[in-house]
Amino acid sequence: MTRTKGLLVMDVDSTLVQEEVIDLLGEEAGVGEKVAQITERAMRGELDFKEALDERVATLAGLSEEIFDKVYKRIHFNKGAKELVAELHKRGYKVGLVSGGFHETVDRLAKEAGVDYVKANHLEVKEGKLTGKVYGDIVTKDVKVQKLKEWAADNELELTDTIAMGDGANDLPMIQTAGIGIAFCAKPIVREQAPYQINEADLYKVIDILDEVKK
Which GO terms fall under molecular function for this chain's record (predicted)? Predict the structure, then answer.
């Protein structure tokens, strides 16, 4: 087996894909504006992420689990997403997703893009309906850092061999921990503190940064 050369770990909502999936679920529940406002404040770092997640998920109580199929059709990969994963694989890299969103959609996105690792939240469903609660470990900023380190260790990589990318305040610790940390079309607080920035919605630009760093 060839040794893994590196690892990219990225956020999902507003990074891998254009949308915030929780906001789409909120729209389907008829509380789209309220949910979007909480998301925006959480991503700017104004609210505790777990509290903001609980508050938004509570608004989804009673929705049918069929909602995931409906919402999945409304999700769009950002430009260059699949090409980036394919190119990194060609170069011997692994790719992981860490998301404050939900396995119900993130697993499908990962499969479609050919991603190696996934960590996301689980929405509780009982008798075919969302209960308005999440279960299991919540993917916080600390969990994002933990998965970056864990997946690097699994592949016998140093943190200097890793890339981390995201757009929100909860991605910052992961971005600052990785060898190459990238703010992707990010909130001001993230752009100010990330070592690298991509301000155009084109994920393939990660390759430009990688090539520049590796010169």
Answer: hydrolase activity
